[in-house]
Amino acid sequence: MLFTMIVLLLLMICSLILIIYASIYNRFQSYNIKINEAEASIDSILRKRFDLLNKSIGVIKSILDEEEDVLDSIVKLRSRKLSNFELDRKIYDAINEFNNYKEEHKELQKNESFIKIEIGLNESESEIVALRKYYNDIITDYNELTKKFPANIVGKLSHFEPKTYFDGKNMEDDIINDFKL
Questions:
Q1: Per the domain annotation, does 62 fall within a domain?
Q2: Would the CA dihedral through 152, 157, 160, 161 be positive or negative?
């Protein structure tokens, strides 16, 4: 009788541990799905911005009758495979170059195609800012889950590692900065 009770108790404890493990594992998977969706949305906006900048090259060249390379940073990106982090930085540089052309050549501001591209870039800027914030919020929650007990045990067993924020920082950067305050 005692042996049966001990076996039953052990089965209940093992079942409870298994249920807790599965629950935490599913939370990790839920965050991974959200992270992948956010990355896909960011990728879509970055591709849209890239396409707009790529289109602007022809518009700028036709208006200014220039043969030299316009928006060199975009031309160089055409054949490269980059992560969203790198692509975002390169597109930001290209937008600065685009804005320099706009400031230096007032005739560009009178062209309808150029204005549409500029409007598209401005609209996509607000979208990318919102998506970066959303992505980083998810990463914060995910990274906290990888650090808290008992989820950190499940994370280690399942090889869930802390992820990098969209701006390229990792969670340790925040921890170090917290201690400096």
A1: yes
A2: positive
pLDDT digits 0-9 by tens, 36-81: 999 999 989 998 998 888 888 888 877 777 656 666 666 666 666 7
Q: Please indicate, yes or no, if residue 32 is contained in any of the structural domains.
A: no
Spatial distance between the Cα atoms of 34 and 32, rounded to a whole number of angstroms:
5
State how many domains the chain has: 1
CATH number, residue 47: 1.20.1440
Inside any domain, residue 178 = no
Q: Of 26, 21, 31, which is closest to residue 150 (Cα–Cα)?
A: 21
Burial class (CB in 10 A: 0-12, 13-18, 19+), 154: buried
Range of the domain at 50: 38-172
- Residue where the block lists tokens 């990728």: 43
Cβ–Cβ under 8 Å, residues 98 and 121:
yes
With contact defined as beta carbons under 8 Å apart, do 42 and 87 qualify? no
pLDDT at residue 172 in the model: 47
pLDDT at residue number 24: 94
Report phi then psi at 164, rounded to 5. Answer: -85, 140
Between vectors from CA 82 to CA 36 and to CA 56, what angle results, nearest 5°? 105
